[in-house]
Fold this sequence. Notes:
Blueprint: E1 10-22, E2 25-36, H1 51-58, E3 66-73, E4 76-78, H2 80-86, E5 88-91, H3 103-114, H4 118-127, H5 143-156, E6 161-164
Parallel strand pairs: 5-6
Antiparallel strand pairs: 1-2, 1-3, 3-4
Amino acid sequence: MDIERDSQVLTRLDIEALSLSRGERRLFDGLSFSLSAGEAAALTGANGAGKTSLLRAVAGFIRPDAGAIVFHGADGEMEAETAQRSALHLLGHHEGLKPQRTARQELGFQVEWLGGSAEAMDAAVVRLKLSPLLDLETRKLSAGQRRRLSLARLVAAPRPLWLLDEPL
């Protein structure tokens, strides 16, 4: 299976008057901000404040109660589904690693699935110091090693927007 690619490059993300609830509890109301290419933002707040829910909404996994999530490309506004499918990575609390696969197999799968290159995979391995771990099954990796492997998957198959939930 191949993921359809969009020729546009994500240049800006706008969150406009976003409101989100989980069950009967309102997590946030009227949240607005913008991020342009090259910028980073850190979401801080107490447990249950809605940080993960916001990331999941941007990724398209949950629908906000109100407001808009707008992706902009070089040629103007992008369709949300296109941007969510081809322009972002979401790394959540759980890495989604198959315990019986080796680190090398996990990276190779992601590169094939998401359209990275062997060169990008090699660069990610070097950058995140994963060479000694490549032939180990992921179940044998420490939590920190699994997190680095998950980050390497993002580096090996680049997307302009990374949504990292508790990355460290």
